[in-house]
């Protein structure tokens, strides 16, 4: 990524790969309850499948009262440093690239691209967006956020070997792309699809004019055409594996 990027760019880089990880998380844990011990740095799911995460990272919290997000590195509570170190890495990235929403201790909801204009907006939206930004910086792609009282939502990145995605298969990749285009607030489709393909280990190459993107694997190919606004104008996909 270049030095001149915005939070909207980072969110596009994250959006589709993040969605696939969250869909996979749901497949792994099913119907569940959760519990976290921040002092012991222990995050546990119980329900359809009992699972203890191998690592947990507190990224921050979104509170409806002030209508703002507070990064974990700036929280006055004396949390263990390993619990908040990823939030500090996000801060340093924000400072390096001049992205105030990542570098500032507290971020008003209305300052987040795709977030709400009113502080009364559900904090879940802002928590999800800023978790996505943190995924690009940290390389940790599975997240969880939940209410912890008074409408405030705590946001975590969580790790476990079972959260790793399976190899990309044609039906799954197409389903993820279709769901992303229908549901996600992408600012730049061209950037988002390229970022997803690269993050998924797929081939990704633009034509000389930059208006077509070829996404390739040994088993399938997806050719995407973009309009002058970097939005998708057409998709042609085919598989060679019979899937």
UniProtKB/TrEMBL annotation:
Native source organism of the sequence: Actinomadura namibiensis
UniProt name for this protein: Uncharacterized protein
One Pfam family, short name: DUF6882
InterPro entries: DUF6882 (IPR049249)
């Amino acid at each position: 990524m270049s030095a001149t990027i915005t939070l909207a760019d980072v969110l596009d880089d994250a959006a589709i790969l993040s969605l696939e990880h969250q869909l996979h998380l749901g497949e792994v844990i099913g119907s569940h309850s959760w519990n976290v011990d921040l002092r012991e740095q222990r995050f546990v799911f119980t329900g359809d499948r009992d699972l203890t995460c191998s690592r947990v990272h507190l990224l921050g919290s979104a509170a409806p009262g002030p209508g703002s997000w507070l990064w974990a590195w700036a929280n006055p509570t004396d949390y263990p440093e390993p619990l908040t170190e990823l939030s500090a890495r996000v801060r340093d990235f924000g400072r390096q690239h001049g992205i105030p929403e990542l570098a500032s201790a507290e971020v008003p909801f209305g300052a987040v691209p795709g977030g709400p204009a009113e502080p009364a907006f559900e904090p879940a939206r802002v928590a999800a967006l800023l978790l996505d930004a943190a995924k690009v910086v940290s390389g940790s792609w599975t997240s969880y956020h939940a209410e912890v009282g008074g409408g405030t939502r705590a946001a975590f990145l969580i790790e476990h070997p079972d959260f790793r995605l399976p190899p990309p298969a044609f039906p799954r990749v197409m389903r993820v792309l279709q769901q992303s285009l229908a549901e996600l607030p992408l600012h730049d489709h061209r950037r988002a699809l390229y970022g997803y393909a690269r993050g998924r280990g797929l081939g990704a190459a633009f034509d000389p004019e930059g208006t077509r993107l070829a996404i390739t694997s040994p088993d399938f190919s997806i050719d995407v055409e973009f309009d002058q606004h970097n939005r998708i104008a057409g998709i042609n996909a085919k598989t060679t594996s019979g899937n």
